[in-house]
Design brief:
The protein has helices at about 5-20, 35-45, 60-70, and strands at about 20-25, 25-30, 50, 55-60. The protein has about 80 residues and is an alpha+beta fold. The chain has one domain (about 5-65).
C-alpha cells in the first residue's frame, strides 16, 4: 500500500468507526450506500470481508492495520 493509499484508508477506517455500527468484529452499514461502499472499499484492501451487502467483518489484517495506524480512545 502506498503512503497515499494508506492515508485514504485511515480516513475511511475513521469514518467507519464514527458513522457505522460496530458489533465486535462486525460492521453494520445501516443500509446506507456510503457505508456499503466503505465496507466494499476496505474489502478491496483485504482489511474487511463482505458478509452480506449490508454487513462487513474486520479481517485479521484489518484489525492489525487499525491497531497500528488508527489511534482509538481507551475504553476504560
Amino acid at each position: 500500500m502506498t503512503d497515499r493509499e494508506k492515508k485514504l484508508v485511515i480516513a475511511l477506517v475513521k469514518m467507519v468507526d464514527q458513522y457505522l455500527d460496530n458489533h465486535q468484529d462486525e460492521v453494520d452499514s445501516r443500509s446506507m450506500s456510503a457505508g456499503e461502499h466503505a465496507i466494499d472499499a476496505l474489502a478491496d484492501f483485504v482489511l474487511m470481508e463482505v458478509v452480506h451487502t449490508r454487513f462487513g467483518r474486520w479481517t485479521d489484517a484489518g484489525k492489525k492495520f487499525v491497531a497500528e495506524n488508527v489511534p482509538r480512545p481507551n475504553s476504560n
